[in-house]
Design a protein that fits this description.
By secondary structure, the protein is α+β, with helices and mostly antiparallel strands. The strands form four sheets. Strands 4, 5, 6, 7, 8, 9, 10, 11, 12 and 13 form a ten-stranded antiparallel sheet that branches. Strands 18-15-14-19-20-21 form a six-stranded parallel sheet, sandwiched between helices. A three-stranded antiparallel sheet has the order 1-2-3, with no helix packed on it. β6 and β7 form a beta hairpin. The protein binds CIS-heme D hydroxychlorin gamma-spirolactone 17R, 18S. CIS-heme D hydroxychlorin gamma-spirolactone 17R, 18S (HDE) binds next to β5, β6, β7 and α10.
Length: about 725
């Protein structure tokens, strides 16, 4: 507890030592706490490395006098703070990242010379950033939105970025429309709201005047746009890319990430409430699963096809509003990605990471998809704006992890410059790097010719057929969710003509869905279908891969059970539930009237993870309520306890209970459902707990939905 000798005697005298709940502090003259360095502690310094004696008081002329300009520590601290923010991403501002590795499972030398795909079992480091698109940096995680799924592979031949989304198509066909799309989706420019929501006039005005967006709109109105968390999402490269092998032969490719834990989303009313209860729900999920060793994993699948297939496929493979159904071109698994480490610092890594579609290694190349071509310009440009220097690639998170030699030099923040005399080439000094025609990136020699023109190809003109195919590939539950989402969003649109115009588009997709939406919007008369540039087809076969429910996990692994307990709870029932959940790889969190936990019937204390208001059922995949009758009666007077149960019911969750919890069911108005609903499970011992957790593998009791939703059929 040494004082700096520079401190005056008066300053030293004015301090006294105290212990404040486990913390040794010195109390200063004005009652402020000082923590001074012991001999083992690092000493606080300025950015110039100078040791600091007092970080609680600025330098003053007299105790109550003006602050001195000479206080370099104060000025440096404030100067740096004032400049802490960099511009947030203009889109995908809200995001969260993690480190991990990609393991090559299938060598692909037949198709590509890319080094990353040459050797089975080889691991390549990756950094992944997930994001929402429309919201600002501080917006809630559960916005209805596309999720970004951007992967940076630090390969031996430089960085390769797949800057993808969790939806395999996009709203627009030409990059020139991107600013319009994003302006329309973000807050309206006069009011600056709504935040992170497409449920407003500008968005639907633009969409209803952009028929090419209809396929993507079906996806964003589906539950894909409200994922349970990043761990349960697919990812897609969206565009058609090329793989090019050592002989210069090209094969078209589409990239797919498939989550090991299966697909899962939440329901809309739940999403709205999660945003209030835990706006960081997706961040927290990634953080806690990685920190607890439940490592998220995806398989990388490829769809490979040649020119001949591209010629005969019913849509243009350069059109980013179209998929190639997996039934037409099955995917092959070529690798897996595991995320195993959170960044040490969010800003340095997740905020400063710079993904760029144009980062491709030799052996992977572009196609003429006009959206991809536009992106290849935008991503470099945006990094300069955001990161402020052409040297952003020197930041550790962006720097390649392979040898690098070039003649770029100087500029803001250059800390890695050429060494030696040669900073140009050719040179006579026998110094510096040289080009290599064999191993260097060689663009695929595509033959290109044509008139210079601004024209959309006619092969891009069918805007409805795949929208219909997507809708028809869904289970009835999922179809209802799409219609519900359209009704929700369009009900927030204040201009009746826009609502009507959208219904005019929906008529081209599915008549019954359009009628249902119209009925639930209270539309008095049905509009005519919007004239289609190309007549929608109805002969495309539904594809099971497009449904979430059909691709669920069948297990509760990786999911979370929230158990609401009261004092006096039957410890055997609780222990059985915990064991059954953990046996399948799930997690149990305890919710209790106080965060201190509860005392079970055997006197044992059970720690709580949440106090009841802070742990609503929306943050769990399934719930159980275990109580003793007397304490459950008391708990039933607490509104948040009743909400816990009635929300779990409304959100179609599986619910475990014991007899002691019944007063809460009565108070929540659910007692009558106990015998009539397949989602309730009495839990008392190992076998009943196992039955309950097995059932939870279905994730939701979808057939309950008719009991909790008021819908007009149209
Ligand atoms: Fe992006 N996009 N984008 N985008 N995008 C950006 O780059 C852009 C598009 C995607 O976690 C920006 O670094 C244009 C499709 C992701 O850091 C910017 C067009 C897909 C991320 C940009 C598109 C994406 C971005 C903003 C139309 C899915 C976040 C900040 C042609 C395949 C990456 C930045 C991260 C970010 C431009 C369309 C995915 C402005 C011009 C399609 C995942 O450069």
């Amino acid at each position: 507890m040494a004082h700096s000798p520079r401190q005056s005697k008066a300053e030293q005298r004015s301090r006294k030592k105290e212990k404040i709940v486990d913390q040794e502090v010195t109390v200063g003259n004005g009652g402020e706490y000082h923590q001074t360095a012991d001999k083992d502690d690092p000493v606080l310094t300025t950015a110039q490395g100078g040791p600091v004696s007092d970080d609680q008081n600025s330098l003053r002329i007299g105790e109550r006098g003006p602050t001195a300009m000479e206080d370099f520590h104060f000025r440096e601290k404030l100067f740096h703070f004032d400049h802490e923010r960099i511009p947030e991403r203009v889109v995908h501002a809200r995001g969260y990242g993690a480190h991990g590795y990609f393991e090559t499972l299938k060598p692909l030398s037949e198709y590509t010379s890319a080094d990353i795909f040459q050797r089975e079992g080889e691991k390549t480091p990756v950094f992944v950033r997930f994001s929402t698109v429309a919201g600002n940096k501080g917006s809630g995680d559960l916005a209805r939105d596309v999720r970004g799924f951007a992967v940076k592979f630090y390969t031996k031949e430089g960085n390769w970025d797949i800057v993808g989304n969790n939806i395999p198509v996009f709203f627009i066909q030409d990059a020139i429309k991107f600013p319009d799309l994003i302006h329309a989706a973000k807050q309206e420019p006069d009011s600056d709201f709504p935040q992170a929501q497409t449920a407003h006039d500008n968005f639907w005005d633009f969409i209803s005047l952009t028929p090419e967006s209809m396929h993507m709109v079906m996806w964003t109105m589906s539950d894909r746009a409200i994922p349970r968390s990043f761990r349960f999402m697919e990812g897609f490269g969206v565009h058609t890319f090329r793989l090019v092998n050592g002989d210069g032969k090209s094969t078209f490719v589409k990239f797919h990430w498939k989550p090991k834990l299966g697909l899962q989303s939440v329901v809309w009313n739940e999403a709205l409430k999660i945003n209030g209860a835990d706006p960081d729900f997706h961040r927290r999920d990634l953080w806690s699963s990685i920190k607890s060793g439940m490592l998220p994993e995806w398989e990388l699948h490829l769809q490979l096809f040649d020119e001949e297939f591209a010629e005969k496929f019913e849509f243009d493979v350069l059109d980013p509003t179209k998929i190639i159904p997996e039934e037409d071109v099955p995917t092959i698994c070529v690798g897996r990605m595991v995320l195993d480490r959170m960044p040490d610092n969010f800003f340095a890594e997740t905020e400063q990471v710079a993904f760029m579609t144009q980062n491709v290694p030799p052996g992977i190349d572009f196609t003429n998809d006009p959206l991809l071509q536009g992106r290849n310009f935008s991503y470099l440009d945006t990094q300069l704006k955001r990161l402020g220097s052409t040297n952003f690639s020197q930041l550790p998170i962006n720097a390649p992890q392979c040898p690098m030699h070039h003649f770029q030099q100087d500029g803001h923040m250059a800390f890695r410059n050429v060494q030696g005399r040669a900073n140009y080439q050719p040179n006579s000094w026998d110094e510096g790097p040289r080009e290599n025609p064999q191993s260097g990136f060689t663009s695929y020699r595509a033959h290109e010719e044509g008139d210079k023109c601004r024209i959309r190809p006619e092969s891009f003109a069918d805007h409805y057929s795949q929208a219909r195919q997507f809708y028809q590939s869904q289970t009835p539950t999922e179809q209802n969710h799409i219609a519900d989402a359209l009704v929700f969003e369009l009900s927030k649109v204040e201009t009746p003509a826009i609502r009507k115009r959208m219904v005019g588009h929906l008529l081209n997709i599915d008549q019954a869905m359009a009628k249902k939406v119209a009925a639930n919007l209270g539309l008095s008369d049905m509009p005519d279908p919007v004239p289609a540039a190309k007549a929608p087809r109805d002969d495309l076969k539904p594809s099971d891969k497009l449904s979430i429910i059909k691709n669920g996990p069948g297990s509760f692994g990786g999911r979370k059970l929230g158990v609401l307990l009261t004092d006096g709870v039957d410890h055997k029932a609780f222990d059985a539930l915990k064991k059954a959940t953990e046996a399948v790889g799930g997690v149990v969190e305890v919710v209790a009237p106080t965060v201190g936990g509860v005392k079970a019937d055997n006197g044992q204390m059970i720690d709580a993870n949440h106090k009841i208001e802070g742990g609503p059922s929306v943050v769990f995949d399934a719930v159980a309520i275990l109580g003793n009758a007397e304490n459950s009666r008391t708990l039933a007077t607490e509104a948040t306890a009743r909400d816990f149960l009635s929300d779990a019911f409304a959100h179609l969750k599986f619910i475990g209970y014991n007899d002691g919890a019944l007063p809460l069911f009565e108070a929540a108005g659910l007692k009558d459902f106990l015998k009539k609903d397949d989602g309730f499970f009495a839990v008392s011992d190992t076998s009943s707990a196992d039955d309950f957790i097995r059932a939870c593998g279905d994730l939701r009791v979808w057939k309950r939905e008719d009991k909790v939703r008021l819908r007009k059929t149209g």
